[in-house]
Amino acid sequence: MTQATMRGGSGPAVREWELRLARWLARYSITLLRMSLGVVFLGFGVLKFVPGLSPAEPLAADTMQILTLGLLPERIGVLIVAALESTIGFLLLTGVLMRIALALLAVEMVGIMSPLVLLPGAMFDDNLAPTLAGQYVIKDIIIGAAGLVIAAQTLGARLIVKSPPDQ
Length: 167
What we know:
Structural class: mainly alpha
Order of helices and strands: HHHHHHHHH
């Protein structure tokens, strides 16, 4: 056994493999993130076009009722959410009109997170533990973070892979 192996270090072959992997991830990971987010939005958006098919439909309807001060019929509000999510999904999946996609995503994130403030009784139980609906909304913080990463790349940021120093 070499001293590097005993210390938990890695040999040149492992370092080269890690560097290749890092380059591949730098090149493709944000594209894969963008496309996977697009699939999620497109899939969940399309579900909302069919009444009763989306388990999130009641939450979307209640939220839209509050956000529009009850001025829109419930079904129209859900169809607006469906169209918005489907458009975001299509644009993210294809990578076209990314600035528009990201602006729509920012608007959508306000709607997605607003039940935490507008519908606290549906989001948290009496012990302030998140309900299933609350967990559904809270996990969307990840969607917001993914959107920020995609926005950074769209606006010109790039991942840079530095060669590790020789050990």
